[in-house]
Fold these 4 entries.
Entry 1:
Amino acid sequence: LFMARVIDYISAHLPNGDLGINEMSQSLCMSSSTFRRRMYAITKGSPKMFVRVVQINKAKELLSSTTLTIKEISAQCGYKEVNSFIRAFQSDTGVTPAKWRDQCKTE
């Protein structure tokens, strides 16, 4: 239930990038330190790392199922700068978003 609520919050707030620890913890009616501890206990990582996982997974979904531009996808995933999105995506997947999309088309 806790993680479902976290994912719902992240998904709802991805496009506007409103994903600070304080905002997330307040939406779950807990202190930021308790929120961090629970997230780490479940994910073995920080809340920020988990947000990035959700962002990259959303980007993969949009890249494989839409014709949105990379810039539009980066904005929908909460990135203010497309270059930051491309770097994060490539760091996590090993390929650029454009290459990911091309690979999805050939599969």
Note: The helical segments are 2-13, 21-27, 32-43, 47-65, 70-76, 82-93, 97-106.
Entry 2:
Amino acid sequence: FSGSAFKLVHIPSNYHVTSSQVTWGSGSHLQAITACEPEASNPNALWQIGYANDRPACSAGDVIKCGDVVSLRHVNTRKYLRSSTHRAPLSGRQEVSGDDGNFGRK
């Protein structure tokens, strides 16, 4: 992973997708990913994008085409954004968490 860091924003609420070293106490027990009110200086809301499936690293300025498979990595913890079949402890909906998995990367 290289290039710029960015913030993921849930448009309807304007909340930022954020994470830290906290793990879910149930479900997957992986790193918790949540949404929070925007803070301009929140370093826990920074992400990077990279290609998945054995493609070379994504560089700043690369064009990501429709249909490209990518992964999102949290800048501070270096965990990959993923979803699972577990129910989220806070919302009861599908859990989103951070994982060490390489998702096809070597």
Note: Strands lie at 6-7, 9-10, 15-23, 31-36, 46-51, 70-74, 80-87, 94-99.
Entry 3:
Amino acid sequence: STVMWRDSGLAYRFKHDAHINVKEGHAALVSLKRRCRDHRRYGKRFVHFLDSAVFTCAYLKGRSSSYALGRLLQRCYAYCLASSQTPLPYWVPTDTNPSDEESRQFG
């Protein structure tokens, strides 16, 4: 079966300078928050495409030695727990990540 990609139109600039892995984690958190708005998605599993190998591995493991990444992971998993959603983080190269297209305008 074919999976269709839906453009969310979500692109934004970060207000504070941060490490790229923290920025990628924040983008994943924003995506989770948007998923949690729709109660029909509660109790579901979903594939979460990420183009940061560091954040993907930390997301899979559920922890990080970095304080900033650890705090983001806590927030991500709090949303998952509250909505009974199970993320399946999957790393994809940046140039093939369909969700990264909107952010390229800031690059």
Note: The first strand starts at residue 45 and ends at 50.
Entry 4:
Amino acid sequence: VAPLEPDQCKLLVDSARSISEEVWACFDGEPFALEPSEQAMVPATWSGGWVGNGPPAEFLAVQPQNVPQDNRIKILPGVCSGKDMDFMLCVYNDTSEPLDVDLGDLL
């Protein structure tokens, strides 16, 4: 295994920091493939940390802007309850290839 280049290390550190400090939705179900142009309702759970006093009563779940979007499933924006750690999200595949969705994947 080759060592990481400095720019790869920085990207890895930045990504790890973002995941640990921000709130993310993670897939929490059986692995499956989402076909091109297909949508699905999938089980998810929150990961990461809520800053301050915890989650707001309600908030809008949207596609994260600070992660690469190529070959990732996308989420449709939706209102979530801050009381629920486990919930359902609507996701879609806007690529021309099937996308594998595995337990723990960031949505």
Note: The chain has a mean pLDDT of 83.
